[in-house]
Design a protein that fits this description.
90 residues; mainly beta; six-stranded antiparallel sheet; 0% helix; 38% strand
């Protein structure tokens, strides 16, 4: 089963938080911040006044409390509006 977003919606999956810092310190579960970087899985067709500037496979930064959480076949996804995507991460 797949999710095909409508209009200006985008389906994303959050990336995993890093378990160690750059200096090599291992973080406990409570010390990890909720990641805000997600991978784009599917992109809707857009609207007349909204240009879809992301594509499948992009890493994006999304608003912390944006979107609707969806669980499908044991996997968690978030469906966000294009306006809730803040930046593309290289």
């Amino acid at each position: 089963m797949t999710i095909k977003p409508l209009q200006d919606r985008v389906v994303v999956k959050m990336t995993e938080a890093e378990e160690t810092t750059k200096s090599g310190i291992i973080l406990s579960g409570s010390a990890k911040e909720k990641p805000e970087v997600a991978e784009v899985l599917e992109v809707g067709e857009g609207k007349k006044d909204v240009t879809m500037t992301v594509k499948k496979g992009d890493k994006v930064l999304i608003s912390k409390y944006a979107g609707t959480n969806v669980k499908l076949e044991g996997e968690e996804y978030i469906i966000v509006k294009m306006d809730d995507i803040l930046a593309i991460v290289d």
